[in-house]
Write a structure and sequence with these properties.
The chain is mainly α. It has a domain at about 35-65. It is about 75% helix and about 0% strand. The protein has helices at about 1-20, 30-65. The longest helix has about 35 residues, at about 30-65. It is flat. It starts with a helix and ends in a 7-residue tail after the last helix.
Length: about 70
Amino acid sequence: MIKLVFMKKFYFILIIYFFSFTNFAHAYLDPGTGSIILQALLGAIAAVTSYFVFGWNKVKNFFKKIFKKNKTK
């Protein structure tokens, strides 16, 4: 138990240390990299949207089946 608490404190201090003493990267992002990032972002948004739309349609169809009126004449 004491070892677990010590490890949590150690990792917390280690993360704080690494984020405190960072250097600038001086990296260059060309337009191709920017378009890849934009494409990945738009793809992720489309995937999440379609996931929720398909899920909502399943819920809607389930309740339609339950509350469907019988039309027998």
